[in-house]
Amino acid sequence: MHSLLLNFDWTQLRKPDFYIDLGGLYLILFIVFAETGLFFGFFLPGDSLLFAAGMYSNKLAAHTFDTHNEFLNLMLLWVLISLMGILGNLVGYWFGRKSGPFLYERKDNWFFKKRHLDQAHEFYEKHGGAAIVYARFLPIIRTFAPIVAGIVQMDRKQFYIYNIIGCAAWVLAMLLGGFYLQALVEKWFHFDLKDHIDVVAIVIIIITTAPVLFKLFFRKTKAAQ
Predict the structure, then answer these.
(1) Is the pLDDT of residue 205 over 80?
(2) Which distant-in-sequence residues (6+ apart) come within 8 Å of 142 by Cβ?
(3) Which one of 15, 38, 193, 217 is at 20 to 30 Å from 101 when CA atoms are compared?
(4) Can you tell me the distance from the alpha carbon of 98 to that of 88, in angstroms, rounded to the nearest whole number?
(5) Alpha carbons 42 and 120: distance in angstroms, whole number
(6) Which residues, 6+ apart, have CB-to-CB distance to 27 below 8 Å?
(7) Domain of 53?
(8) Is residue 104 part of a domain?
């Protein structure tokens, strides 16, 4: 067991296609649920994983529900993944309503950082209910936004509506982005984008985390002044 751990290439954990090859659609569904429903799921590769899922949509469908139609396969992936994301947010919302005060009193550890909760709360206060939609496109924030919505006792019906809209839009954007970018690059430049999935993942991470990093940097600068 020890030798297996030593010989394992841990850099594989940063590659979205690793998760696709390891557990296929079922692992993707779990990761999306965990990232949006469990407070320790903020480190999971949601955006890049869904983008890669768009590229590998036919491969994912081949092991589960292959319809022999590329676009229909993609739409079924969208529905299934969206459902898990919606359920994940519902769990986060329920968790926030039940244990909000406890979280704010909890000490920081490797899994939990109170500053993440504070950032999500600030984001929610600024954008209101629409923050549930916006947060879907922001790593870390999307994990804690439903928890904060539960803590501040956001109206259930309002939360359900924003939750469905935000999740459906996020999953669709990521899947379509991966699916069509792969097709366009293959058509125009004649190479397989899957061979460069590491670069694609890094670009997606930079794009999606840039707003969060920008806000954190300037908030620290302002606090120092």
Answers:
(1) no
(2) 35, 36, 46, 135, 136, 170
(3) 217
(4) 15
(5) 12
(6) 19, 20
(7) 14-224
(8) yes
Residue 4 inside a domain? The answer is: no
pTM listed for this prediction = 0.73
Q: Could you give the percent of the chain with pLDDT greater than 90? A: 14
Number of domains composing the chain: 1
Nearest to 15 by CA among 54, 49, 56: 49
Q: Which helix (H) or strand (E) holds 93?
A: helix 70-105
> Measured between alpha carbons, how far is 181 from 81 in angstroms, rounded to an integer?
20
- For 86-116, what is each residue's pLDDT tens digit? 999 999 999 888 876 676 666 776 666 677 6
Query: Do residues 176 and 20 lie in contact, with contact meaning Cβ atoms separated by under 8 Å?
Result: no
Which of 51, 31, 61, 63 has the alpha carbon at shortest distance from 198?
51
CA angle 163–202–168, rounded 5-degree value: 20
Asked whether residue 22 is assigned to any structural domain, the reply reads yes
Q: Which two tokens stand for residue 71?
A: 């676009």
90: Cα separation from own chain's centroid: 15
Residue 144 tokens read as: 């804690």
Answer yes or no: are the C-beta atoms of 28 and 60 closer than 8 Å.
Answer: yes
Task: For the beta carbon of residue 35, count every other beta carbon within 10 angstroms.
Answer: 25
pLDDT 10s digits, 10-41? 455 555 566 667 767 888 898 889 888 776 76
Please indicate, yes or no, if residue 2 is contained in any of the structural domains: no
